[in-house]
Design brief:
250 residues; 6 helices
C-alpha cells in the first residue's frame, strides 16, 4: 500500500527526530523470531526422528513441520505490522507543534516569505536533480563508449595477429621486404638517372662550346664514354623494373 504525501512527511519528520526509522526495530524483532522459530522446528524434527524412528514417513514429517513453520511466520508478521502501526501512531509520532533544529531556519518567517523561499529551494533542487540525471546519463554513455573501444581494440589486435599469421604462412613477409627494397632502389636509380641527364646536358654544352672555338675530333672521344655510362645505367634500371614486375606477378 502506497504512503500518502502526508504519511511520507510524517515519516521523514520522525526519522529526523529519532535519528533512525523505528520500523527497523520491528523488522529486527520479526527476523529474530523467525530465526528462533526455524531453530525450534529443526530441534523438534530431530527429537521426533530420534525417538520415533521407523514409525513415520520422514518426508511427511518434513512437509507438516514446514507448513507449521510457515503458518507461525505469517501469524507473527501480521502481529509485527500491527505493532509497527501502533508504535508509529502512539509512541514514535512527532507532535505537530514540535519544531526540529533542522527546521529552525523557517522560524519567524512570514507565510509569504516562507513560500517564496520554498519555491526557490524547489527550483534549485530540480536543477540539481536534472544535473544529476545528466551526469548519470553521461556516465552510462561514456562507459558504453569505453566498452565499445575495448571491443574494437581486441578486434583490431586479432586482425593484426591474423595478418601476421597469413604472411608467415604464405611467405609474404619476405616479398613485402623485397618490394620495399626494390622501391628504394628504383628511387635511387631515378635520382642517378636525373643526375646523369644533367651531366650529359652539361657535357653537351661544354663540347659544343669547344667545337665552336677549336673544331677537332676530340669531342667525339669525350662523348663516347658518357654515352656508354648512360646506356649502362639505363640497362640497370631496366633490369630492376623487370625484376620488380616478376615479384609482383608471383
Amino acid at each position: 500500500m502506497e504512503e500518502t504525501r502526508a504519511g511520507q512527511i510524517d515519516k521523514e519528520y520522525m526519522i529526523q527526530h529519532f535519528g533512525t526509522d523505528p520500523s527497523f526495530l520491528i523488522e529486527d524483532i520479526c527476523e529474530d523470531f523467525k530465526d528462533c522459530l526455524t531453530s525450534s522446528i529443526s530441534g523438534i524434527k530431530d527429537v521426533v526422528k530420534k525417538k520415533q524412528a521407523g514409525k513415520f514417513d520422514e518426508s511427511e514429517l518434513d512437509r507438516k513441520l514446514g507448513l507449521l513453520e510457515e503458518d507461525y511466520k505469517a501469524y507473527f508478521e501480521k502481529k509485527c505490522l500491527t505493532l509497527d502501526g501502533a508504535l508509529k501512531q502512539n509512541i514514535f509520532k512527532v507532535p505537530q507543534n514540535v519544531l526540529l533544529k533542522e527546521d529552525l531556519v523557517w522560524e519567524n518567517l512570514t507565510n509569504s516569505v516562507a513560500k517564496e523561499k520554498k519555491t526557490t529551494l524547489s527550483i534549485n533542487m530540480e536543477k540539481q536533480r536534472n544535473e544529476y540525471k545528466t551526469a548519470l546519463y553521461k556516465k552510462t554513455y561514456l562507459r558504453n563508449y569505453i566498452d565499445k573501444l575495448k571491443q574494437a581494440a581486441v578486434y583490431q589486435e586479432e586482425l593484426i595477429q591474423r595478418e601476421a599469421t597469413l604472411k608467415e604462412k604464405y611467405g609474404l613477409q619476405d616479398s613485402v621486404e623485397t618490394l620495399k627494397f626494390l622501391e628504394r632502389e628504383w628511387q635511387s636509380g631515378k635520382q642517378q638517372l636525373t643526375e646523369l641527364r644533367n651531366i650529359k646536358e652539361q657535357v653537351a654544352i661544354s663540347v659544343g662550346e669547344k667545337k665552336r672555338s677549336h673544331p677537332s675530333s676530340r669531342g667525339e672521344t669525350t662523348k663516347g664514354p658518357i654515352l656508354k655510362t648512360y646506356i649502362f645505367n639505363c640497362g640497370n634500371m631496366f633490369l630492376y623494373l623487370f625484376f620488380l614486375h616478376i615479384v609482383k606477378t608471383t
